Amino acid sequence: MASYDLIVIGSGPGGYVCAIRAAQLGMKVAVVEKNPTYGGTCLNVGCMPSKALLYASELFEETEHSFAKMGISVSKPKLDLPSMMTFKQQGIDGNTKGVEFLLKKNKIDGLRGTGKILGAGKVEVKGADGKTETHDTKNIVIATGSDVAKLKGIEIDEKRIVSSTGALSLEKVPGHLLVVGAGVIGLELGSVWRRLGAKVTVVEFLDRILPGMDGEVAKQFQRILEKQGVTFKLGAKVTGVDTSGKTLKAQVEPAAGGKAETIEADIVLVAIGRTAYTEGLGLKEAGVATDNRGRVEVDNHFMSNVKGIYAIGDAIRGPMLAHKAEDEGVAVAEIIAGQAGHVNYDVIPGVVYTTPEVATVGKTEEELKEAGIAYNAGKFPFTANGRSKVNQTTDGFVKILADAKTDRVLGVHIIGREAGEMIHEACVLMEFGGSAEDLARTCHAHPTRSEAVKEAAFNVAKRAIHM
Fold first, then answer.
1. How far apart are CA 326 and CA 70, in angstroms?
2. Which of the residues 86, 139, 401, 453 could staple to 411 if both were Cys, CB 3.0 to 4.6 A apart?
3. Which member of 135, 301, 446, 466 is catalytic?
4. Is 342 considered catalytic here?
5. Cβ(8)–Cβ(321) under 8 Å?
6. pLDDT tens digits along 119-142
């Protein structure tokens, strides 16, 4: 078998990016992938297909409800769900084939099968035919991603009780979709099926949606979703689902205990989070330490307690985000090559791709208060933004949090159309340690939604122009 400088186990965003960067730095690299296509969860059954359905369903809803007020007369749109799923698959195919091309372009070997670490410097790959091959390597990067978190006592069959994977491939629009979990995945997929005609109820154990995001943002976002037709049951838990009848009967109880109620649904989506996918890797036998959630314990250079074995992405601590994994993939490749790879965890954006979008980077108000950091907050609503007004898309606001002493921007939170695109000027500013004043004095094109970011920065000093 060939000997490598680096073998990466997993070809998701973290894995394939790590492999490409390592190849650019002159290493002989291989990627282990057990699935038929490259790209991991993100490209195949996660980020990318969900964005295709979010986009298609948004246009479907706009055609029915928004075109007329703009003077565009069209007949009532008719849903062709199989064609929409074909549209989704075309996007998946384009992206996965793109990754395959990039690996070939960078002369990276694809090792097809399930990877297992036999110890430092040795990786076993078991093919679909059951045959195994052992490969020698100087370094190993674990980039195996994550799997769906299970709900105790509820079996996911991907037909009636589904994870995000099944929810992306339903054969028909459910009459009633019950979503368990008010995090990013549950709200995005709930939005897709609501737009296409489903009644959607979201059950969340906590007393709020979007745990971890800024509280004010979460409250306004919940109001917007409720206005769109989503029903929320907060502070509640699903304790069981009866699958014996034509409809599912979910038992829902108050999180604090109390009388249960039964909610009937056609589909139940379990979206309570994800867990590190590290089983079967041989970590225990190889002496690689993991935490109580199955994540590989690594140092500041992404190395485990076993020299030459590294881990990145969802397989280690931190937010389970594709772009976080990508940055770690680049960093660990550079570290292995003797360079100074680094990830700034204070500037990792997060986006909810609903309509409107939610985008956030840095600290929330709750985190700053808990840390005892004095700050000033500047807000600007899209109701006062010229572009948003003329487009009649005025839901949401921009909020900027800056250090009270230095004016350095510590967090930015946006609800609004294209918020996921707008957040990046805040990321660049924060990466360079910029102030609210710096952002406020940067000329922004008019008329754009991004002017709301400039105005919020001005309003940190309570001097917004347009409100």
1. 41
2. 401
3. 446
4. no
5. no
6. 999 999 999 999 999 999 999 999
